[in-house]
Amino acid sequence: MLAASELMTSIQRAAALISSKTRICILTGAGISAESGIPTFRDKQTGLWAQYRAEDLASPDAFARDPKMVWSWYQWRRQQVHDKTPNPAHRALAEWQQLAETRGQSFTLITQNVDDLHEQAGSQATHLHGHLWRNRCSQCATPYAMTANVEGKKDKSSLNFSEDLIHCPQCDSYIRPDIVWFGEALPVEAWAQAENAASQCDVFLSIGTSSLVYPAAGLAQLAQQNGATLIEINPNPTPNTFVDITLAEKAGLVLPTLINQLSA
Ligand code: APR
Fold this sequence. Notes:
There is one protein chain. This protein has helices at 4-19, 31-34, 54-57, 60-65, 67-81, 88-102, 117-121, 188-200, 219-225, 251-263, and strands at residues 23-28, 106-111, 126-127, 130-137, 143-144, 175-179, 203-207, 229-233, 245-247. By secondary structure, the protein is α/β, with parallel strands linked by helices. The strands form two sheets. The chain has a six-stranded parallel sheet with strand order 3-2-1-7-8-9, sandwiched between helices. The relative contact order is 0.20. The structure holds adenosine-5-diphosphoribose. The site of adenosine-5-diphosphoribose (APR) has 24 residues, from helix 2 and helix 10.
């Protein structure tokens, strides 16, 4: 962590740099939702699922082997997440998106998160890894609305955390969460948007991500190869050694300060 004055100087440098640019691209990860009370992926799981690693449950193989176990885990996660609300970092990004529009800057927000906290805060985000509140058939891919409406935002009136497996009304196969699991391809349109925005931006911010999971982690390098300046917000070090400005503090602290500077 940086001393307060050192951090403030770095935030001011970042704000001055961002103000001089027209195309902004932001990638968020689990760290941005940590201050809302949602554990990150590399955090050890707690409670009922403490003996499992997320990586061993979020996979097509795991679902093929034991669909009930994987479905139960997601239903448990939905239970953990359903009452969580955006924190100052999500709200600052939503404010920034509006500010950028009024200034004629292009602003693309890409997230690896499957929660809907960016949307709850009022942002529009491209989801690379799917949506916790959407389901689809594991075979025919038909969307299935149960705990959520098909837009991916949770419909609180129909929350249902039952661990019973559901069969697809079209083909009778099991319904699964509409989430990109390890080893699966990213949604084509979302990835195309992300690659476009990263390769064309002037400044790329990597926020609250360990930058370990590809292809998302490659977006920062893609941006830099195309001339963008890189800013990282993360209290912990990451493998991104090529960052121009590192703001080594929590996103909920850094982003509201950064937006204040940008609005001044
Ligand atoms: N502010 C900013 N960053 C934070 C904060 C915070 N308050 N708290 C934790 N972090 C950082 C951690 O230091 C870590 O680097 O957030 C990062 C979280 O890393 P991961 O748990 O690996 O999450 P993420 O990078 O989003 O994972 C990528 O992996 O499991 C898959 O598909 C899943 O989308 C996920 C992907």
